[in-house]
Each structure stands twice: as structure tokens, then as C-alpha cells.
Amino acid sequence: MSVYLDFNSSAPIDTRVLDYMIEVYRTTYGNADSRTHTFGESARQVVESARKQVASILAIKSDEVFFTSGATESNNIAIQGLRDYAVQSGKRHIITSTIEHKAVLETVKHLEKEGFEVTWINPETDGRIPSQKIKSAVRDDTLLVSLMHVNNETGIIQPVQEIGEFCSEKKVLFHIDATQSFGKLINELREAKYDMLSMSAHKICGPQGVGALVLRKKRYKIPPVKGIMFGGQQEHGIRPGTIPVALVAGLGKACEIAENEFLQQKEKCIQIKEQLFKLLEESGINYKINGSPEYCIFTTLNISFTGVSSEALMLSSKQFCGVSNGSACNSNSYAPSYVLTAMSIPTDQIESAIRVSWGNQAEIDEVIHGFKNLLDVAKKLS
Q1: Domain boundary residue, one of 186, 221, 256
Q2: CATH number of residue 96's parent domain
Q3: Rounded to whole angstroms, how far apart are CA atoms 168 and 175?
Q4: Domain boundary residue among 256, 282, 302?
Q5: What is the pLDDT of residues 53-88, one digit of tens each?
């Protein structure tokens, strides 16, 4: 039996979330924006309850939470939605890193073609974006700094608290792509200063197809973001379209579970990581960890096995475990990882890199068994 170790792509849905969603699908079928009957009112209650659950895990106000189809859409709204404000204010300079998710990279590149000026920050070899490089790049006309909290390929945690403090002082908008940290680094996100934050439900054992954009209020006003689609006034015009009540309910339930259980979930994930390192050391195989273990989240490991093609390893071990060699959004591309390339990792090391990622739904014994078999395959291929 194969064990699933690709949680960074998508985590298995928690059965409690699924059960609640099924209940909502069966009993709450009204449109949440229908104000003329109790069916709509019931749907609205479910939606607002979920909004409070998302707000609670971040320790923010519920009216700062806007539902979307996921982090990709949230990222697009957060960045593209500033166009009008950029024109009005004369601020057309954006700062981001070269290792962001494609949802940020491609959006920023599009604005660059439209005449926005972009400063691209490269990571150090340990995978971290130096906060000083961000600070040094800020100018009087800087509109936005956009940075992911945890890298989806390496698991490296970026210094968003320090950068957020600096942006707040300089009155520069700060956007955090929290796709890989939301529900995991709960206290860190609660303490961070930011204007906008993106997340997806399916990274925290919720349903695919729903997420949220958080817009923090200052002096009772949200950041100057406008919707990028035309339609109705759902979500105050930030995200038009009928609200998928059951999906939103699933997101809320997943947030509730993550908030209540994150300490025990973290402990379990740390135990899994310790076991994986122990197996690596005992295997005798030559390997390298991509990114600094000091700054790596407890749910991710990016490893290169010397002389072993990652493609060959994944194909030869898929009956034992499901791992990846990068972002699922780029899985159709055979180009070397742009994240590892930006970290100045040698090409042969990049070509042998795999990403192992797990979560609370993973069973320790199953993970150990699957990873042992993967190591055996790697030995044969080396």
C-alpha cells in the first residue's frame, strides 16, 4: 500500500470536515445572498459562522475575511486589485522574491509588462529571503511587498514578522501568501503585521476549491483593493459570484479543528520529521537537504539523493509512497525547479531533488514504512 506524502500539494480532507459539508449540502441549499426567505438566511448564517472561524484562527475581525476560490485567486486579487490605487497614488513599484508561487510570480510579471517596476529579490543558498534586501529595496514609490511565509517546495520559513514591521513603519502595503503556513504557524501569523493574506482550505485538510483573502483594516478601512472580476456585490464586490456555502462551511470547520488541535498536530509532525531524518542517517545513502533545516517548517523535507534522478525515483517508488519534485502547479514542466535554481543549487542536485510533505492525517508507522521503501529504491538507483 502506498502512503501519501504530498500534503504541500493538497492534504486529505478531514472526515469531520467532510461530514459537516455533507450535512450542509443536504440541509442548507439556499443562496447566502437571498434576503427574502429563511432558506437564504440559513445559508448566510452558515457562511458568517465560517467567516468567524477563519477570523478566530488569525485573531482578527470577521469583516476582514473575504471568501475566494483559493489562494491563487486571493493572490491575484491582492496584487491586481491595487491597479487603480497605483495610478491614483503614483506608486507603481512592487517588491517580491524569485521563489514565490506562480500565482504571485505570473501576476507580478503581468503588471511589469503593463509598466509597473518590479524589484526581484533572490534567496540565499539556505532558501531564506534576506530581510535587509527587502528593506533596502523599498522606495518612496513602493506600492507593495509580496512574500510567501513558507516556501511550498523547500518548506523554508521567511522572516515575515520583521518585514511586516518594517513595511508598517514605511506605510508600504504588505501581502503574505500564507498558503503553506496557515493553520500550522498559527502564533507566528497572529503576531505578524500585514495588510493582506492569502490561504487555501485544502492545505489544512479542508475542501479543494475554496480559500480566503484577508484584508486588514486600518482606521476602519481595508486596503485599497478592488475586485478583478465583474459581477454582483458578493463579498462586498471583492469577489463576485454565488458563495459556495458547503465549501465555505468546510473551510470554517477545518479552521476550527486546526485552531483547537494545532499543538498536538505540530508535535506529531515533528515526530514524523525526526523519524525521517533518523532513517536517512541509518540508510547510508548520500543525500543533501535543500534549504536550511534551521528555518524549515515541521511538515516538509526537500532532499537530493546523489546520482539519483528524481523522476526515476518517483516512478520506481510510487507503489510505496507518493512524493513530488516540486510544486504540483508546475508538474507538467520538465524544467529544473526555479526555486532551487534561485538558491544557486547545482543542476545535478536539483535534478535529484524530491519533496516529502506530511500532516496530521499521516500515520507515523505508514510514513516510516513507505519512506524506508523509497530509500531502498534510491539505493538501487544510485
Answers
A1: 256
A2: 3.40.640.10
A3: 11
A4: 256
A5: 999 999 999 999 999 999 999 999 999 999 999 999
- Write the CATH number for 271: 3.90.1150.10
Proportion of the chain above pLDDT 70, given as a percent: 98
Question: Is a pLDDT exceeding 80 seen at residue 327?
Answer: no
Q: How high is the pLDDT of residue 270?
A: 98
Bridge partners (DSSP) of residue 142 are 93
Residue 149: count other Cβ atoms within 10 Å of its Cβ. 27
Q: Could you give the C-alpha distances from 371 to 254, 304, 310, 351, 367, in angstroms and in order? A: 28, 14, 14, 19, 6
Is residue 205 located within the same domain as residue 315? no
Q: Are strands 287-289 and 211-215 parallel, antiparallel or unpaired?
A: unpaired
What is the per-residue pLDDT across 115-135, written as a single tens digit (0 to 9) for each? 999 999 999 999 999 999 999
Mean pLDDT of 311-320: 96
Q: Are 129 and 137 in contact (CB under 8 A)?
A: no
CA angle 281, 319, 299 (to 5 degrees): 50
Quickly tell me which residue has 500564507 as its cell.
178
Same domain? For 193 and 117 the reply is yes
End-to-end CA distance of the chain: 24
Exactly one of 205, 269, 296, 329 is catalytic; which is it?
A: 329
SS (HEC) of 238-306 = CCCCCCCHHHHHHHHHHHHHHHHHHHHHHHHHHHHHHHHHHHHHHHCCCEEECCCHHHECCCEEEEEEC
Count up the domains in the chain and report the number.
2
Instruction: Identify the domain containing residue 332 by its residue range.
Output: 3-11+262-381
- On whether both 38 and 161 belong to a single domain, the answer is yes
Tell me whether residue 269 is one of the annotated catalytic residues. no
pLDDT recorded at residue 180: 98
Q: Which residue has the cell 529544473?
A: 336
Strand partners, 156: 296
> Are the C-beta atoms of residues 179 and 71 closer than 8 Å to each other?
yes
